[in-house]
Amino acid sequence: MNSISNVWNHPRTSAAGLLIAIVSIAAVFSQQGVTLGTAGSGTIVTLASAIATALLGLLAKDPGSSQVSVSSSSGTTAKLGAWALIALLLPLPFIAGCSGARGVAQDIVNWTPALQSAVATVDSTAALLAPADAPIFTAATVGFDLASNLLVTHAKAYLANPSAGTLAQIQTQIVTFQQQVNSALLKAAGISNAASQKHALAAVQAVATIVSAILALVQSISSKAAVAQMAAQSTIKLASVESYLDRSQAAQMVAAHYGESLAVARMQAAQGTQILRMEGF
Fold first, then answer.
1. DSSP 39
2. What is the DSSP string of 112-137?
3. What is the number of helices (H) and of strands (E) in the chain?
4. Residue of 51, 44, 50, 56 whose CA lies nearest to 86
5. Please, what is the Cα angle at 60 between 58 and 66, to 5 degrees?
6. What are 177-192's pLDDT values in tens digits?
7. What residue spans define the domains of the chain?
8. What is the pLDDT of residues 85-130, one digit of tens each?
9. Cα separations (Å) of 21 from 27, 83, 90, 178?
10. What is the phi/psi pair of residue 43, to 5°?
11. Least buried of 63, 148, 152, 182, by fewest C-beta within 10 Å?
12. 0.85 exceeded by pTM
């Protein structure tokens, strides 16, 4: 009964919750390829999401009835404004600003300096580890240089001559790289020396952040069949390595790369990880 009475006593809050739910469900449907039909050049799902987001924005700006105090109205409006921001961010892929496979390929190339720097850090990390741990770490990360170079090469090739074959190469290479990174994280976590483990995990985490960002980007422009195939090739799932990842570090890297706030980067990183898990990675 309390839940039902709350709906009537707080209609704006209830309406906001319903609109956020619509936007969230529409985002999931879009990621899964569910359209529910077409609406002009778009789909019913995207139209519903756009309408719900617009209504939420109007609701957030509504000053409310005259019976509500100024302080109460301001507090409610502020909360609804924050919810509107979250709803606007939900439909975005892992990183905002990319449209289509060509845009993703360009973004992969744009990640090159950070990726090369992270891989270079991995290459130099073995010298910081205990003598018994260095060979383990080196063996776990030996393929990083080749994997990163191949990924960037395929992305540049796609930019120069877009084709389904080149896109398939990007899809295969990012999954291969992701699996190498996930394997390295597990092996780094297994190092018993505390100091060595800390250095090893920190180095691999930086590469993992970039690889996860690129994987989410590639997933966002891949067909449902291609995503299913990519996920099937991902035998070491994110759930197995998530506990070893530094979310704060990931958000900082994403924010620095895209020139955005930590709050936005944190939301995007969290959503990207959730989508990848839902897709079977």
1. E
2. HHHHHHHHHHHHHHGGGS-TTTHHHH
3. 14, 2
4. 56
5. 95
6. 999 999 999 999 999 9
7. 2-89, 100-278
8. 444 444 444 443 344 677 888 888 899 899 999 999 999 999 999 9
9. 10, 11, 10, 32
10. -125, 165
11. 63
12. no
* Cβ within 8 Å of residue 245, ≥6 positions away: 185, 205, 208, 209
Contacts of 106 (CB under 8 A, 6+ apart): 98, 155, 159
Two structure tokens written together for 128 = 């910081």
Q: Which residues contact 130 (CB under 8 A, 6 or more apart)?
A: 193, 195, 196
DSSP 3-state of 42 = strand
| Spatial contact of 264 and 89, defined as CB atoms under 8 Å apart | yes
For the chain, what's the residue count? 281
Is the per-residue pLDDT at 42 higher than 50?
no
Q: Let me know the angle formed at the C-alpha of 68 by 67 and 70, rounded to the nearest 5 degrees.
A: 125
Task: Give tens-digit pLDDT for 16-37.
Answer: 556 565 655 655 555 455 556 5
Is residue 27 within 8 A of residue 53, CB to CB? The reply is: no
| Tokens coding 44 | 């019913």
Structure tokens at 190: 């297994």
